[in-house]
Amino acid sequence: MEDLEGGLLEYKTVGEFLAEIKKKFGLGDKEGVKVAELKRLEQRGKTMEEFVQEFRRAARECVYKGRPLVEEFKREINRTIHQRLIELE
């Protein structure tokens, strides 16, 4: 990512990145931060149990509820599991 003057910006954590966005663009409301945190999740090499715990923690104060929250969960899980869920629907 580049700053407004064209220089490269580096962040050590997602928290630092979100704080910078809040500072520059005013997107730091609690709900917006929770949505951003939820959207950055991916299961990758985690077990389903580990991922579910991480997802629940991120979703606790998120504005997503019901079906949108389920759709976000399915988007972030392992592609094989996601495909099997689609086949079951």
Task: Please outline what is shown here.
The protein has about 90 residues and is an all-alpha fold. The protein has a domain at about 30-89.
Give a description of the structure.
With 89 residues, the chain is mostly helical. The chain has a domain at 31-88. The protein has helices at residues 14-25, 30-40, 48-59, 66-76, 79-88. The longest helix has 12 residues, at 14-25. The chain is globular. The N and C termini lie far apart (39 Å). The model has no long low-confidence stretch (mean pLDDT 79).
For the secondary structure, the number of strands is 0
String of helices and strands: HHHHH
* Rg over CA atoms: 16 Å
The tally of helices reads 5
What gap, in angstroms, lies between the N and C termini?
39 Å
Helix content: 55-70%
The shape is globular
Low-confidence stretches: none
> What average pLDDT do the residues reach?
79
Strand content: under 5%
The computed structural class is mainly alpha
Q: Major beta sheet, specifics?
A: none
Which secondary structure elements does this structure contain, and how are they paired or packed?
Layout: H1 14-25, H2 30-40, H3 48-59, H4 66-76, H5 79-88
Which descriptors apply to this entry?
globular; 89 residues
